[in-house]
Task: inverse folding
């Protein structure tokens, strides 16, 4: 499995913001599309966003306009800035090399609640 290291999760109130980080091995960061996926309790894995080595990002419709992606090439780290969080955004967030999330890191927990 690819050794992603995700961090930045936590508990926030609705409307709040969190910035997640994902550090990847340099060969993955440089040559592969990296996907953010999430899994809520009792639910399947859901694709959230993805970033290609050339930059830019794609987002699932439910988060478009609220989430942004950025890359720090020197740190081989991908960031997911999440604004205007909603309770339905609560989940464990993973970085993965595939959109289904089969090859992923250990994840970081995000809880959005009052």
Result:
């Amino acid at each position: 499995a690819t050794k992603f290291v995700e961090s930045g999760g936590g508990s926030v109130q609705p409307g709040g913001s969190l910035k997640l980080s994902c550090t990847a091995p340099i060969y993955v960061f440089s040559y592969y599309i990296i996907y953010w996926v999430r899994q809520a309790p009792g639910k399947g894995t859901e694709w959230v966003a993805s970033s290609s080595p050339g930059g830019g990002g794609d987002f699932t419709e439910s988060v478009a306009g609220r989430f942004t992606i950025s890359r720090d090439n020197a740190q081989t780290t991908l960031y997911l800035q999440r604004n205007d969080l909603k309770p339905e955004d609560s989940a464990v967030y993973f970085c993965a090399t595939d959109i289904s999330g089969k090859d992923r890191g250990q994840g970081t927990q995000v809880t959005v609640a009052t």
Notes: The mean pLDDT is 93.
